[in-house]
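During the reporting period the student researcher (J.K.) took over the structure-prediction task from the postdoctoral fellow and processed the backlog of single-chain submissions. One of the processed entries is reproduced below for the supervisory committee.
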Amino acid sequence: MTMSYNSEFYIGFLAVFLIVYFLMPRPRLRLFVILAGNMLFYKFAGGLNPMSVIFATAILVWLITMKMGRGYEECEKQAADLDRKAKNALINEAKKKNRKWLALGLVLILGFLIYIKVGRVLHFDEVGHIRDIRFTAMLVPVGLSYYTFSAVGYLADVYWRKAKAEKDPVKVLTALTFFPIIIEGPILHYDDLMKQFDEMPGFSYERLSFGAQRIFWGLFKKIVVSDRLAAYTTTVFGNLGEFFGIEVLLAVIANVLVIYTDFSGCMDIVIGSAECMGIELPENFRQPFFAKGAAEFWRRWHITLGAWFKDYVYMPLAMNPRFMKWTGSIRKKAGARASRIVSSAVPLMIVWILTGLWHGTGINYLLWGIYWGILIVAETAFAPELKKIPEKLGVNTESFGYQFLQMARTFIYFAVGRMFTADGSKGSIIHILRQMVGEHRLWTLFDGSLYEHGLDRKDFYVALAGICVIWIVDILSTRMKIREELAEQPLVFRWLVYYALVIAVLIFGLYGPQFVASDFAYGVF
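J.K. obtained the following structure tokens:
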């Protein structure tokens, strides 16, 4: 039996865990219950061997941050009676010493991530000479990328003195293995999570109700919509040579909806699970397909990943003295605008190349990262010119029609991006486009043959209805806090909504003895 957030096993596990959790009279005891829950969860989700890797990482992180923290504490004691200049000199000296500890942690933690995700394989001939070197994907322990990034962020925050080193190893271990976030994030600042461990409240009907609503909403997205549409996209992209025209176009569109409902559904489940405990996790989605451009889209999609790259890659690169000196020389030679473009474009492209490689090690993921980097750099660099185009054409930029077209363009951006990786091949986007324009096959929309590729007519209609419900809820979410508004409604109306959601999941969800709950798309990252 394996643990997945969308499985009956997880729901049962969470129910038993919460009962034990709420029976504990003090936050410290609840902390130990969470740690025990983390161990049980990961045993069933990933196995004992991967769990030992996480524990080793947690101990390493604790030891290094404690070493850096002690260095800063000693520095502060020595500098208590010194003037500002002398105090800064001492702090800089301590920071210089801590740099080697930070470097050690980054090399070990990121090195292990790179080794696991890429896996360097050497082949030798009979006399021991290297015959060839090739890279192959290896088994990735679940959640490796997520807890690695959070651990790196915590190390950097302690080094930069943005966070104090946590002296309690139990808190560090519990934060690093926190089961609601271990598989797909969101990517946290561990310092924020560990502060909440000191104030974990007891039972609250409102929190439990809100958390349960969020969990079932996530299950609706995943097992009613995402898994249903995935049956079609898997069939098409798994046998792409047999499909053409409208069949492939619908698979591309459906694939966008699959990844959105899969990932955002998972975030709803994990945020709802933590909310039941009284722990607040950051949002990872904010109606991304309402975005009106590429940059805005990525401020709404996988928000914590974007924030991580901004804090730990973009800003250190952009504020690097050597880089700033170089862009300053560009300013003198080519002007202020050229300097501004270069100062943002270079860090942005590096960020997006790394983001592509974070998603996967193939050339298609590298191209995916470059694609998004170019879109965002172009938007940033030519923002003044792009703004003038509708003005010259006399278009009302505040009109619904214009904003709808911008949102449609964002959807197309994402759909094209997904084509780089959809079928898993190096030439994925070329292969898909070739099949899309080969022949139109419009007749499949009317002769019923479209419903023979993983989904029947009923399933298509159920998925379409589910998408409409999600779209309506997203619109309402931009205007109100839905759960709070619902809590203010009469008891009968509230429970009708609750029952409708639960019944929709039970009746229309894909599960049962002949169905294996599919993993979340980002679960192997």
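The committee noted the following: Confidence is low (pLDDT under 50) at residues 120-140, 512-516.
J.K. will present the remaining backlog at the next meeting.
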